Amino acid sequence: MTMRKIIQIDEEKCNGCGLCVPSCAEGALQIIDGKARLVKDQYCDGLGACLGECPQGALQIIERDADEFNEDAVHQHLSKRSAGREPVKHAGCPGSRMMVLREEPVSQPEQGLSSGPRPELRQWPVQLELVPVTAPYFKDADLLIAADCVPFAYPDFHRRFLKGRSLIIGCPKLDDSQGYLEKLTEIFRKNDLNSVTVAHMEVPCCFGLVRLVKEALQRSGAQVPFYEATITINGEIQQA
Pairing mode, if any, of strands 59-66 and 35-38? Predict the structure, then answer.
């Protein structure tokens, strides 16, 4: 190890938007558990190309003891990622930048928009892997946790379930259940939620989402009203 310049991330300021990730050509940064992380010291060249991309001012260059920058290690790291042999938690696409879309639902169409139903989505992103643990849209929120298939099976999803709620989506069968459990626990622990609603499909594997949410609530110690809705593959509410 040697004393050198290297990136430092202020986790309190970082909101997990991911804008810094694509600006690092060496792949030294990833979004993990909703925060930017330095993967390895040897991947960071200390030049600070990522600094200007952070809207929160969470990045800075400091001097500390660190492994020397290793171009060969960076090349191997990038080669593994491109070959799909090394998992990437979040590639830092600007499309995953955290956004609050609307504070309150809009009841009437705005001038120039179609007269069709208004979307009730209040925030972005919505996928559990991507949402920051302490996103502002979780504060004092009625939280809806929906299985991926529910919005496609239930045609009135926006009006019946999403209106007035913050949203998280995920698939208990195909995604990382243990990672989901840990992240949900942190979300429940660190945010004062008003209620939690789980909407899932009637197929057996989808009930795993209910189990994950209930276990996460128990682990977090949060005492909030819990509601469950089961959607049939024919698009009806089995229980609510």
Answer: unpaired
- Whole-prediction pTM: 0.61
User: Among 13-27, 66-80, 119-133, 158-172, which stretch is predicted with the lowest mean pLDDT?
Assistant: 13-27
CB 179, CB 212: distance < 8 Å: no
Whether 176 contacts 128, CB under 8 Å: no
pLDDT in the model for residue 109: 46
The answer to the question of residue 112 being in a domain is: no
Whole-number Å distance between alpha carbons of 7 and 50: 9
Within this chain, do residues 135 and 85 fall inside the same structural domain, yes or no?
no
pLDDT at 173: 85
Q: Tell me the CATH number at 165.
A: 3.40.50
Domain that holds residue 155: 99-106+117-239
- Distance between CA atoms of 111 and 108, rounded to whole angstroms? 9
β-pairing, 237-239 vs 226-231, is antiparallel
Same domain, 225 and 149: yes
Query: What is the mean pLDDT of the segment spanning 137-153?
Result: 96
Taking residues 132-148, report their average pLDDT: 92
Lowest mean pLDDT of 41-55, 90-104, 208-222, name the range.
90-104
